[in-house]
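Data deposition worksheet. Section B asks for the primary sequence of the deposited chain exactly as it was used as input, without tags or linkers unless they were present during the calculation. Section C holds the resulting structure in token form. Section D is free text for depositor observations; keep each observation to a single sentence. Incomplete worksheets are returned to the depositor.
Section A, Depositor: J.P.
Section B:
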Amino acid sequence: MTFPDPGHVNGFYLRQFFGMTRWNAGQHDHPLEYVDPRTPEGLDTVAALLIPHLDALGEAQEAALVRTWAYALAEFDDRDLAWFLLGSLPFAPTHPRAFLDDLAARLFPAGLPAHDPHARRVDRPEDSLFDLVPPG
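Section C:
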């Protein structure tokens, strides 16, 4: 699937990316079960688990993820942020915006791009981050 348009964002891309850790509810032997996301060490652990998956994303996939991440931090409310993380982590971040911002600093050392306030928000769960390919 190509981009619906070059400036779209989809909150489900965040959930799909965090889902790459392969954590499942009730799974007590996963490293995320022992993480306190409020600590720098906990954030480092989450980042370490996600970096190999970030590195495996294609150019179009990473562009859509970082565009969505930047837009989400600027435009989504905390309830939306928490909802898109729900079920992909064994913990519900108390402050999802701060959690995502701190984690972004670890995953994207050069920083996230400036968010586009005119991006088209298309939160469709059936659209997969992993199916995106560059247009034409």
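Section D:
The chain has a mean pLDDT of 87.
The radius of gyration is 14 Å.
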